[in-house]
Amino acid sequence: MARPEQVEAFHMDSDEEEAAEMTDDEEVPLGRVRQAANLNRLPLHHFLRLIAGGRMMEHGAAATNEDLVQNLKRGGVIQSERVHRALQLCARDLFVPAEHREEALLDAPIRVESLDFNISAPHMHATCLEALQLQPGHKASGCDFLDVGSGCGVLTACGAWLVGPLGAAVGFDVRREAVSMGRDNVRRLTADSAEFASGACPPRIELQNVFMPSPRWLAHFDRVHVGASCPPDRLGPLLSLLRPEGGLIVVPVAPNDLRVITKKANGAITQKVISQVRFSDLEVPTDAEVLLATLRSERRQRTAPGHQPSTFAQDVAAIVGGTPPPSPTLNGNACASSFIPSSSPSTGTRLPFWGAMWRAVPASVLPLLLPVVPARPIVVSQVIDGLPATPQASAGDKSWPHRLSKLFSSCSSGSAASGECLMEGEGAGSEGAPGSAPASPPPLRLSSDELGEPDCVLEGQGWSIPVHRAVLRQRCDHFRARCGAGWADADSAKVLVPDHFSRQAVASFLHYCYNDSLEQCSDPQEAVAVLHVALFYACPRLIHLCELRLAHLLRGRDRRGGGKQPRGGGAVESDEDGLADAAAALLALADEAGLSHLRAVALDYIVHHYEAVAATESYQGLSRGQVALVAQEACRSHTHMVAHIRKMADEQPLPEPLY
Predict the structure, then answer these.
(1) What does the DSSP 8-state code read for residue 281?
(2) Which of residues 521 and 97 earns the better pLDDT score?
């Protein structure tokens, strides 16, 4: 779209041209940006519009947003009623920062210096929205729209209204402050405008770099708008955002093209230049940064926990209503437990599970995997101090118990306090409206008021805990099988607990049965103890929660920078030694117990910290098959990295655009 100052630009001298090029997001005068060699590429309709004068914008600030939008319509920039209404509803003055409100009703870009980004001129927003052809009936499931460089959120909001309630509108920005401002703006618009709230999908604004997006956004969108100038050789990655069946991208391309890139269902790509513009540059990462981000994203995917859905609501209804649960089976037979106890080769003590794993793990690491059983609640410091020292280490701070004690105390206090230990469904990328969290219903609880007096006790060495048989039968496959198979002691008022189970571990197990949570398990050593109980009594979801807790021991520390040691601190090095030792032991545990998530996390940690882990006693005690797992993971990582490098090197340029 031409503007009056563009006509005058034909007579600018060189100094004026250089000054004019400093204005971001403004359309560049055609006579200034075209060299003599390519003047023949100027489309005829642009030249006619330039000299006609009938579609030129009015100068000066409009009195209201309505006047601003009407000016754009009279100038021919707005051509559809839906774009007209979208710009009316998403008033520009509601989105710009307070200190720039006086500029909001000018048809000109706004430089938000405090946040280091630009807000494009209204005529550019209108031009791009018209080119995007956003329609609510684009397809049965709605149109998915992405706004790259969303900034204040005004174009994201317009797109949300244009695609309608069945569609989706997402904004990406690399600046955290801009994301926060955009979310606040769309939240305020939704609250203040009933027409927008009912006619638009909930806009989402995410902290993302479009060249390093989360995998869930790949092949996700039908329409993409880019609000900054992209280098021609970086257009290829933008196409990966479009669905396989095709889509459309409106993007400024350096030095001054505004292009529409169309991808068809058969994979054919076309480009068309629709205007000459000048935008600020898109922030483009280096190839090395893209590769590292891609590999990190793949690591997160491989080590992401699976989903073990809770059946607590159904269990509570069945317990209170008195509905007997079905008896579980394993390989067609009623099962008393999913795991068969085995003997420790060193002591002959009966252990709950893991079989030959104990022969692969050194005695110095067994304290991590087999908790001591006291007659009173566990005091971690007392338990740690009572464990045997590493044979190769001297007494003092270098012994395994002291390293483990520091590691557990730092992990428990740090992760629990900061909320980094993500249990299932907690804090993991909400799919709702930006910045909002759905209100959680009051948690279900099983109380004695509903269940009456306990009719059974779990009895260990020197302790007993009263329970309700109906709760055990409904919540645990083990007790369900005992009752369903007609065992002689199925109705016994006393159930003997294996000697190696501590009272605290059984209490945490019962807390899960009555509350469906692992809140009482506050550190990794307790998680191992509870895992013993959960595996023996066959509680799949509790096993899953314990697995998450142990995996976080490695994932949480790895996210915080691994072995980076703060100035003047020696504790981190000691903790990292213990973590390297624990990583190999946790791999052995996960491999023998069939804990796939923990095994993936342990393998990932070992491969990326191999030098430290390979020097530990635990690693030396791994079985040949477990060492082979480490080698396989290392080879897989290397193969994937090489494949990504080749893909980046072999990327083909897009076909030349049409003018």
Answers:
(1) B
(2) 97
